[in-house]
Design brief:
Layout lengths: L28 E2 L3 H10 L40 H15 L18 E2 L4 H4 L19 E8 L5 H4 L6 E2 L11 E2 L8 E12 L5 E12 L11 E6 L6 H5 L3 H5 L18 E4 L4 E4 L11 H13 L18 H5 L14 H12 L12 H13 L9 E2 L2 E2 L9 E2 L7 E3 L17 E3 L9 H5 L13 H6 L6 H9 L2 H13 L1
Antiparallel strand pairs: 1-12, 2-5, 3-4, 3-8, 6-7, 9-10, 11-13, 14-15
């Protein structure tokens, strides 16, 4: 479906003198011709016939689609359209992504600088096989690949003066912006993640039932004193990594065309863009990455993860002590890895390599697109209104310097906008223009391969859902009508809908 397009950038940006959300300085764009624009509209239009697959539907990432593997490496292959030279750069980036960082000082000068407080020693420790992370499965299990983000309200946040609708926040004065549950020898870790689940049986039409588990989170064993009394804690698991460069290449105007923050068309869907501050370009940009679309580019998402998750300085976040606050003086005074020829612990070349790798992880092809049950599930997906937020298809920008990502018909099933998901999924923590009930629509491509890649089937922002059906049944807020429709479906229809999701 089509929603009213944006008509006034002042809805998003308060000061007309600064750039707006249509600016994409990170991309070298070749403008589309009028004929190409018409062609794009035709190939991305909603399907009218559900008896057969749409043309090119099996190629989730266009020419960049990779063949489906049957092992845990299904998300770890380079885009199919890459040149030989690009694949060499991809492999170097992969080595950086998998690198285990060590403490300073160390004889391994290219790999020191870890922490002193951290959540993981490598990117791959969180993004298991380039897939999604998981919550600890017991009180004794490690929380690697999951953490608690911390924020305190801040009415004096300068971004609130520059970006309309921005929610001012600041880090906790003691614990920073993220709780780290690991530390180098001699430094206490900040906390231990404690989760309690309450099981709730819910009846479904046709005599079936489902069990939903409601989590309660607690920052146990706080090592540096109490949190700020107004601090909010947001649980996050690491998302899957595939297709990020293609999401980055979707034209901003195509994303904003689906925004309807006031629900002017009355369909109950009021997606809005997150407009965030770019550390690289020092301007507001459209947020695309992170569970609340808090980062505008793959590079900035990667740089922030290096800094907060592993405690590594880099050109965009140059403090060598990572997320340690001024109150954590021992952490700040510890030896760091920024005193050698690199400058930062991750220099620009290292950041470029990880960014390149993250941009070019291939998206596997769809499975069984012509299967009768899956086609039935696809029809239900559209009829129920799921496609109102999980927008199926886009065509990426034509790009001068990355032709393998340019002008591709892709099928990510996301609008990359923020939606109110109801009180059940609320974390109470704002992030830029996202409030405490809003989350970015996650891409669905590859979701059916989660168990194969990551060894589990935990979904949603905190992994509370143990199946795709549970994930759907947790939807609320703007998606409440869709949730009720799934509750009321005959068992065969509900199974067909899940089969369609598993085919993505």
């Amino acid at each position: 479906m089509l929603r009213p397009s944006f008509t006034c950038l002042s809805l998003f940006i308060a000061l007309p003198a600064i750039a707006g959300p249509l600016d994409e300085p990170h991309l070298s764009i070749i403008p589309r011709s009028a004929a190409e624009t018409e062609r794009v509209a035709r190939v991305t239009a909603p399907p009218q016939n559900f008896d057969v697959p749409q043309r090119f539907e099996a190629l989730s990432a266009g020419a960049a689609t990779v063949r489906v593997r049957k092992d845990a490496d299904a998300f770890s292959k380079p885009s199919a359209s890459m040149s030989f030279e690009s694949k060499l750069e991809f492999e170097l980036g992969k080595a950086m992504f998998e690198k285990l960082w060590v403490s300073s000082p160390s004889s391994t000068k290219a790999s020191d600088g870890l922490g002193p407080l951290y959540n993981a020693r490598s990117c791959m420790r969180c993004h298991i096989n380039d897939g999604r992370g998981h919550p600890p499965e017991s009180h004794e299990d490690s929380a690697v690949s999951m953490f608690l983000r911390v924020a305190v309200p801040n009415e004096a946040d300068p971004m609130a003066m520059r970006i309309e609708g921005y929610h001012g926040t600041k880090p906790d004065p003691v614990y920073g912006g993220q709780l780290q549950d690991f530390a180098l020898a001699g430094y206490p870790a900040e906390y231990r993640l404690h989760i309690d689940y309450e099981e709730r049986i819910v009846p479904l039409a046709g005599g079936e039932q489902a069990s939903l588990r409601k989590p309660t989170y607690r920052a146990a064993d706080l090592a540096y004193g109490a949190l700020h009394p107004d601090a909010t804690l947001s649980p996050r698991i690491a998302p899957q990594m595939i297709g990020l460069g293609l999401l980055e290449a979707i034209p901003a105007k195509d994303i904003l065309a689906n925004a309807d923050p006031e629900d002017t068309d009355g369909d109950g869907i009021s997606g809005k863009p997150n407009i965030v501050w770019s550390e690289r370009y020092q301007m507001p940009m459209l947020g695309r990455f992170g569970l609340k679309a808090g980062r505008p580019t793959v590079e900035e998402q990667s740089a922030a993860a290096f800094f907060r998750d592993i405690g590594l300085s880099n050109p965009l976040f140059p403090k060598a002590w990572g997320d340690c606050s001024q109150s954590q003086s021992a952490c700040r005074a510890a030896p760091h890895g920024d005193k050698d020829v690199r400058g930062e612990e991750v220099d620009q070349k290292g950041l470029d390599l990880v960014t390149f790798y993250s941009r070019h992880l291939g998206v596997p092809a769809r499975r069984k697109v012509a299967d009768e049950t899956i086609l039935r599930g696809k029809k239900l997906f559209h009829e129920t209104g799921c496609a109102s937020c999980h927008t199926p298809a886009y065509v990426t920008h034509r790009l001068k310097d990355e032709p393998e990502l340019g002008f591709q018909l892709i099928w990510p099933y996301t609008d990359l906008l923020l939606h109110d998901m109801g009180e059940g999924l609320a974390d109470g923590q704002p992030e830029a223009r996202a409030n405490g009930r809003e989350w970015r629509t996650p891409p669905l491509w590859g979701i059916g391969l989660t168990a194969q890649v990551s060894g589990h089937s935990f979904f949603l922002h905190d992994g509370r859902a143990r199946s795709l059906l549970e994930a759907v049944l947790w939807h609320g807020g703007e998606a409440e009508p869709q949730r009720k429709a799934v509750f009321a479906m005959p068992p065969a229809d509900r199974a067909a809908l899940i089969s369609f999701l598993e085919s993505l």
